[in-house]
Write a structure and sequence with these properties.
Layout (H helix, E strand, L loop, with lengths): L6 E8 L6 H14 L3 E8 L6 H6 L5 E4 L6 H11 L4 E4 L11 H10 L4 E5 L7 H17 L12 E4 L16 H7 L4 E5 L14 H20 L4 H29 L7 H32 L19
Parallel strand pairs: 1-2, 1-4, 2-3, 5-7
Antiparallel strand pairs: 4-6, 5-6
Length: about 325
């Protein structure tokens, strides 16, 4: 009987990739059969307007998820992962640029190093200059804000243990930050260099809108990492700083009035009042956010911690 670790679900989000799907599918199937994996291939059609769904239906063995409209790559990944049945989940793009022959290497690295996630690193990119520039800029900012140790968050070729997704729902452009989110929750994350190939057919779906959404989601992950459990530490701290600045400006305005008689010709009293009111509002917002955070953890499956295992021994140990 095959080891469970060799049972894999391969999830591929696709959008208008009718020309690329057959070739990438054959490659994946060949790799899985050569390595004697128990496998399933899940194609998540993100509302394609070409023949993608029809082409996907003609393949076998396959599971095809079809969206009613285009909801985005993250949503397609989330739908595919929720359909996965096997202990390992492999994600990759449907444009043929990820190399299926790297799959055994990812699995081996995960096994040998006791990891929960292994992310691919496209060290030698085969993309246009602008796309590479935007990606490297995003990775630099991510490294500064999140510090997850991943060089190439945009690489879709990754292997996960299925248990990683028990408490995670994906949204926005969050698929780039799955390793960061999992690392925050205590999962062990690694990275290895993988092959990257030029696109043969079609055109990239990446544009400035996705880059902007990705940046906003990066800020969300940063906030979640730092302040999700106690947002009062951020908002309340900012509020106290604002109140302190308001008090300082009030003292300066008082000095101008009592000693120089210039209070009527300056904006210091208005600035002082503005800073104090802003500080009070930020502090109150922090308290409200703190209560909402507690309510969130009390009423959802998410937790601010993650238990790997529970050990119990009932004998006396003798």
């Amino acid at each position: 009987m095959k080891d469970a670790i060799d049972s894999v679900s391969i999830v591929i989000p696709v959008f208008n990739e009718a020309e690329n799907i057959p070739e990438i599918f054959r490659e994946i199937k060949s790799v899985c059969e050569e390595n004697r994996y128990i496998y399933e291939i899940i194609l998540a059609d993100d509302g394609s307007t070409d023949k993608t769904f029809e082409v996907a239906q003609s393949l076998a063995p396959v599971k095809v998820i079809r969206f009613r409209r285009n909801f985005g790559q993250t949503a397609a990944l989330d739908a595919g992962i929720k359909q996965a049945r096997h202990p390992l989940v492999i994600t990759m793009d449907g444009d043929g640029q990820n190399d299926p022959h790297d799959i055994p290497k990812l699995i081996q690295y995960l096994q040998e190093n006791g990891l929960d996630v292994v992310s691919g690193w496209r060290k030698k990119r085969m993309d246009p200059f602008l796309k590479r520039f935007v990606s490297r800029t995003a990775n630099f900012l991510k490294g500064f804000l999140i510090q997850d140790g991943i060089h190439d968050s945009g690489c879709s070729l990754k292997v996960y243990k299925k248990e990683c997704f028990r408490q995670i729902d994906l949204y926005g452009e969050m698929h780039r930050f799955i390793p960061a989110i999992l690392k925050i929750k205590g999962f062990r994350v690694g990275e290895i260099v993988v092959n990257h190939r030029p696109r043969k057919y079609g055109k990239t779906k990446y544009d400035w809108r996705r880059a902007l959404k990705g940046f906003v989601d990066m800020i969300s992950v940063w906030f979640w990492n730092k302040y999700a459990v106690r947002p009062l530490h951020l908002l309340g701290g900012m509020g106290l700083v604002s109140i302190a600045l308001g008090f300082v400006t009030f003292l300066y305005a008082l000095y101008l009035y009592l000693l120089l008689g210039k209070i009527g010709h300056t904006a210091w009293p208005i600035l002082s009042a503005f800073l104090v009111l802003t500080g009070v509002l930020l502090f109150v917002l922090g308290l409200i956010a703190d209560m909402l955070s507690k309510s969130y953890y009390a009423n959802t499956k998410d937790r601010p911690y993650n238990v790997q295992e529970v050990f119990e021994r009932t004998d006396s140990g003798q």
